[in-house]
């Protein structure tokens, strides 16, 4: 466990659980640039940037190995301003890895080596009888964020622990945010995925939903039907993202409304569009903004992110967006 920075006990805490992998980007058998990324990690970075001025501590919970690459990741995450006391380091394990190689036509191809990544064992390896750092910190959290990928990477027993944690937070009145991010190849079969999503939605207080992903999950070819289903999901707060099309927001007991996205002349790379939306949206909500204003903040940041290459854009590229 690593403590990147000490935070006063009175500071409100938020935690995000998931996996951040090593990234290799470039031409296969050619020059590859090394980086790192992952949906919940990207959201954590944007949430930390957007809520730094408010003094909110953003903890990233995951597992890494005790190898040098894992140490290198931790050092970089600390530089991003993340709190790392909820990170487990599992002896002999390694972080997951993915490669983005661009072919001669400019098309990007993703390859993953993540089956034995340490993050999958966050809730199990050598820890069955005692709480993980995330479980031990549950009492101090005002918000926990997990995604469909966080669910998918866990074995069944680990997923149960995560559901129990979500339930405990809700019982205490804390917020649980579920971001759908559905990746079919991470699930052994669609039935398991649907069952896990149904449980996650039932446990979440806020759902951040990418419409395309939800259509893929439920094999629903009709976008408007899927939208209606999304707006009827159990969480009190539901936000439906649809790329450049206006974002839908539905609060409990209220009529759903749309929030326009920002006009973007040239989309360069949509990586982390939804993740950055989530970071800015949640930072705004935690600071007391209305859901409509938070969705505008999410759309503003995501519009900036899609105009840059890579998941995490430089701080300088966020000029004018931070409080
Ligand atoms: P995800 O990245 O999760 O697949 P979306 O594709 O729906 O999600 O995009 C997330 C957000 O990114 C949108 O809500 C919007 O704010 C922004 N976005 C994505 N594509 C565009 C675009 N072409 N123009 C403007 N904003 C966009």
Write the layout of secondary structure elements.
Layout: E1 13-17, E2 21-26, E3 32-37, H1 39-51, E4 57-61, E5 63-65, H2 68-79, E6 88-90, E7 97-102, E8 108-113, H3 133-136, E9 141-147, H4 148-153, H5 156-172, E10 175-179, H6 190-203, E11 206-210, H7 211-218, H8 223-231, E12 237-242, E13 245-251, E14 257-259, H9 273-286, H10 291-305
Parallel strand pairs: 1-4, 1-9, 2-7, 5-6, 9-10, 10-11, 11-12
Antiparallel strand pairs: 2-3, 7-8, 12-13, 13-14
Helix pairs in contact: 1-9, 7-8, 9-10
The chain binds adenosine-5'-diphosphate.
Adenosine-5'-diphosphate binds next to β12, α9 and α10.
Identify the overall geometry: globular
Estimate the strand proportion. Answer: 15-25%
Q: What is the CATH superfamily?
A: Ribokinase
**Percent of residues in helical segments?**
25-40%
* Overall mean pLDDT: 93
Report the radius of gyration as a whole number of Å: 19 Å
Bound ligands, named by name, code or SMILES:
adenosine-5'-diphosphate
Q: How would you write the strand order of the largest sheet?
A: 4-1-9-10-11-12-13-14
Straight-line N-to-C gap: 31 Å
Parts with pLDDT < 50 across at least 5 consecutive residues? 1-9
CATH topology: UDP-N-acetylmuramoyl-L-alanine:D-glutamate ligase
Reading the helices and strands in chain order gives EEEHEEHEEEHEHHEHEHHEEEHH
Biggest sheet overview: 8 strands, mixed
């Amino acid at each position: 466990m690593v403590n990147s920075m000490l935070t006063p006990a009175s500071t409100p805490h938020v935690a995000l659980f998931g996996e951040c992998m090593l990234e290799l980007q470039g031409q296969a058998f050619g020059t590859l640039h090394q980086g790192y990324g992952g949906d919940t990690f990207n959201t954590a970075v944007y949430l930390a940037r957007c809520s730094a001025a408010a003094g909110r501590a953003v903890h990233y919970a995951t597992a890494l190995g005790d190898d040098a690459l894992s140490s290198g990741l931790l050092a970089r995450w600390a530089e991003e301003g993340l709190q790392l006391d909820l990170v487990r380091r599992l002896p002999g394990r390694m972080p997951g890895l993915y490669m983005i190689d661009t072919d001669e036509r400019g098309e990007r191809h993703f390859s993953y080596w993540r089956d034995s990544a340490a993050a999958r064992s966050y809730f199990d390896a050598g820890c069955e009888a005692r709480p993980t750092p995330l479980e031990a910190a549950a009492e101090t959290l005002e918000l926990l964020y997990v995604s469909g990928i966080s669910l998918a990477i866990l074995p069944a027993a680990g997923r149960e622990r995560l559901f129990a944690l979500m339930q405990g937070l809700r019982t205490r009145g804390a917020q649980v945010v579920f971001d759908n991010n559905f990746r079919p190849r991470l699930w052994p079969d669609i039935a398991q995925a649907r069952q896990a999503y149904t449980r996650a939605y039932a446990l979440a207080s806020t759902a951040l939903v990418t419409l395309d992903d939800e259509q893929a999950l439920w094999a629903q070819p009709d976008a408007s039907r899927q939208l209606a289903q999304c707006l009827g999901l159990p969480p009190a707060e539901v936000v439906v993202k649809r790329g450049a099309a206006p974002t839908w927001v539905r609060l409990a007991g209220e009529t759903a409304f749309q929030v326009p996205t920002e006009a973007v002349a040239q989309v360069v790379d949509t990586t982390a569009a939804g993740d950055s939306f989530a970071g800015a949206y949640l930072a705004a909500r935690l600071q007391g903004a209305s859901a409509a204003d938070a969705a505008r903040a999410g759309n503003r940041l995501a519009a900036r992110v899609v105009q840059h290459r890579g998941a995490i854009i430089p701080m300088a590229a966020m000029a004018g967006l931070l409080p």
